[in-house]
UniProtKB/TrEMBL annotation:
Residue span(s) of domain ABC1 atypical kinase-like: 97-342
Transmembrane region(s): 491-513
Similarity annotation: Belongs to the protein kinase superfamily. ADCK protein kinase family.
The name this protein goes by in its record: 2-octaprenylphenol hydroxylase
Length: 514
């Protein structure tokens, strides 16, 4: 897609918001300054006729997002979990984007199944019903597996969804590059890198074989988690554009009125959702990164059932430790330690002042504690956080994008069950439990074991590596004899130390095994 095509795509986005009446409503819900509203009205008026019409039966913002395509729907799904940011009315309207978008015809779904499995639908399923849920990327059909007679859920990608996403992502790349050129100060937010990250997430979501693999891994990780369940994958009935899971009965988490009629402790369920997410992120480094209400059910026995594993997050052990220390520091109100962790991890440039940054962190944390959660404006809090990151030159960490986004979504979901829920208090037991297990003598022992295992694997190759280094030094351009001797001594020292470490690693592993 060229420059002009991208410009047309952007112009049509604004025109669609104008034509559907979504522009004014969205800006009002997000509490945009009056000057921006006036400018949008002036610029949008002549563009309106160029916009997509959408479905007139839908509310304006929902109508605009669904008309524009799946990438825009994804953005709307995130806002649907944050009534404190988007406003209660708009968040409630956007909830239909989670799983109640207009489905595509059964005939196209059946054609996809037959193409992917290489056989008629009737040979694989004795029953294949109409869709029970439809979202931006795929829809779900209930079915009965012919071979075993068990109920299953068949997820099928929307026809043409790959091309639609590709067009949106190309436009987003264009926006990112334009922003970096026109506003150099925005480069710390790394818009191009963020867009690449988004593209990677979307690419994974559009291959249901990868989603099936993620579901299987997530199920294995959480097998021992009481009160949490992941359905099993039927690999023989899954392919690139379709995936089959066992059917799980339950009430949708988004229907709070229905859940309230059951014998459930909704505030406790809200806390359980937050704790489950943190446990998966910290303990496993692999978590569900799209935990909105449409992807969660509550089974008859109160078990929380997770669905839709197209967007999963993964963080390495070091990042988990940094994240946990930051959370615990906020919980303990140790803002200096939180500041130190940011500097140690390289999140804040080294030329910034530690004490001043700690003071800024206090201004973020203190308003959260000791207040009724319903009085905390997440929109203002996020705006303040953005100001702090800008002041101290903090760059966007692409490895934390999904983690931070999911935490915002999970808190929003939990607060629909308990408007007074305080995320920090709910998180504290999990963070403290993880810190006890990962900071201390046991953690040091475990880290040393892992280090020695790595060294032991390289032990047999140490002589070869030392020989290659010495050969390379000998073949280099002539250098001063003194320097050559120094380099030779260094190379020999490296080889000796490497050999000793390899042998020591082997000895330690044997001792540990005994």
């Amino acid at each position: 897609m060229g420059v002009f095509a991208n410009l047309w795509r952007l112009a049509r986005t604004g025109a669609t918001f104008q034509r559907t009446g979504a522009m004014e409503e969205a800006l009002a819900a997000l509490d945009a300054p009056r000057s921006i509203r006036v400018a949008a009205r002036i610029l949008g008026w002549p563009l309106g006729p160029l916009g997509l019409k959408g479905d007139p039966a839908l509310p304006p913002v929902v109508r605009a997002l669904t008309a524009l395509g799946p990438a825009y729907v994804k953005f709307g799904q995130t806002l649907s979990t944050r009534p404190d940011v988007a406003g209660p009315k708009l968040a409630r309207e956007l909830r239909v984007l989670q799983d109640r978008i207009a489905p595509f015809p059964d005939a196209e779904a059946r054609a996809t199944v037959e193409h992917e499995l290489g056989r008629p639908v009737e040979e694989a399923f004795s029953e294949f019903g109409p869709p029970v849920a439809a979202a931006s990327i795929a829809q779900v059909h209930p079915a009965i597996e012919r071979e075993t007679g068990r109920r299953v859920a068949v997820k099928i990608l929307r026809p043409g969804v790959e091309r639609a996403f590709r067009k949106d992502v190309e436009a987003f790349h264009f926006i990112a590059r334009t922003i970096e050129v026109l506003a150099p100060s925005s480069r710390r937010l790394r818009p191009t890198a963020v867009t690449r990250h988004f593209e990677g997430v979307v690419t994974t979501e559009l291959d249901l074989r990868l989603e099936a693999s993620a579901a299987a891994e997530f199920k294995a990780n959480t097998a021992g988690d009481a009160g949490f369940r992941v359905p099993s994958v039927l690999w023989g009935l899954s392919a690139k554009r379709m995936m089959t899971l066992e059917w799980v009965d339950g009430d949708p988490l988004g229907d709070v009125d229905l859940l309230a009629t059951r014998d459930l402790d909704l505030p406790e369920l809200g806390r359980f959702i937050i704790r489950s997410f943190l446990r998966h992120a910290l303990r496993d480094g692999f978590f569900h990164a799209d935990m909105h209400q449409g992807n969660l059910k509550v089974a008859k026995d109160g078990t929380l059932v997770a669905l839709d594993f197209g967007i999963m997050g993964r963080i390495d052990p070091y990042t988990r430790r940094v994240y946990a220390e930051i959370l615990l520091g906020f919980l303990m109100k140790d803002y200096r330690r939180v500041a130190e962790v940011h500097f140690e991890a390289g999140y804040v440039p080294a030329d910034q002042d530690l004490e001043t940054f700690a003071q800024a962190l206090r201004s973020i944390g203190e308003p959260i504690f000791g207040q009724d959660a319903s009085r905390i404006s997440m929109a203002r809090l996020l705006a303040h956080l953005f100001e702090v990151t800008e002041r101290f030159g903090m760059e966007t960490r692409t490895e934390l994008i999904l983690l931070q986004r999911t935490m915002v979504v999970v808190e929003g979901v939990s607060r629909t069950l308990d408007p007074n829920l305080n995320m920090w208090k709910a998180a504290q037991p999990v963070v403290e439990e993880w810190m006890k297990a990962n900071i201390g003598p046991k953690a040091v022992k475990r880290d040393l074991e892992a280090t020695f295992k790595v060294l032991s694997r390289f032990g047999p190759r140490m002589p070869e590596m030392a020989e290659k280094l010495l050969t390379k030094l000998a073949e280099d351009e002539p250098i001063r004899v003194a320097d050559q001797g120094l380099e030779l001594r260094r190379a020999i020292a490296v080889g000796v130390v490497a050999g000793l470490l390899g042998g020591l690693a082997g000895a330690v592993l044997v001792a540990l095994a005994l």
